[in-house]
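Quick question: what would this complex look like in 3D?
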Amino acid sequence: MTTRVAVIRYPGSNCETETLEAITRAGGEATLLDYRSATLDGADAVVLPGGFSYGDYLRSGAIARFAPVMQAVATHAAAGGPVIGICNGFQILCEAHLLPGALMHNAQQRFNARPVDVRIERTTTACTGSYAVGQVIRIPLAHGEGRYVADTMTLDTLDGEDQVVLRYVAVEGSDAPANPNGSSRDIAGICNPEGNIVGFMPHPERLADMTLGSDIGLGFFRSLVGRTASGVGA
Amino acid sequence: MNFRVHVRVIPRPGLLDPQGQAVEQALGSLGFAGVSGVRIGRAIEFGLEAASVEAATQAAHAMCEKLLANPVTEDFVVAVES
């Protein structure tokens, strides 16, 4: 059976099209879901895409958190269903307290749009099963508020309980900054203890087609739709 | 009674505030000497119908905890005037 993945469109989302495309290319059935929906329309998994929901008013993700669909997302997540937040989606998951911590303005106080090197730290999650622990991938980043912040106790828990999924790394000879936004402990993505709720700042949907020279990001979606066996090429 | 509520939201102490740093540097380069510890938050104000000052204050605190401030990164101060 084909995995049905709902991509939620909030007012101000702008990465939903390429996210739907990546899911389709990974072999899933992708459906666009309106933020006013009271249900997930029978979806097996949910993706909160990148963008600027509600214009980032107040704080990024602060208002999207109260969108009607979020109740269904929370219920789905609590039942163990896969919920992925990419960039603004990650910000929304943190604001919704589905993931701990918060994302603040980049330390450099500028919008950062560039490829970065991240290391896969955990593969037993809803979307990283296609990769190997320790594998470093180069993937696009595009955000103004991606500095992951949490209190020391939360950070210790994330580290101790294997909840850091992606970490920015310095690669020898690479032109990418080791930590592009000042995130605590170089954190680029985290998950809940069970691994079914995952949020991260990089954009795998933007590198999921060989036309672009690499489809390394496709692995996130292959894993999400349960087609991890074929693996991915760098 | 109708009250005017003033909410001040400020980044928590110890958290890097790049906006504050940039403004502090700008003030320095404009010749304003002796400025330190600039923090940039936001001010929110609104009218609120409530039975008493206490009720209005309590409601404003609830709003801050739920939406107006992020408890992970921000502190808030509420002032209510009649």
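Answer marked as accepted. Residues 127 and 223 of chain A are 5 Å apart (CA to CA).
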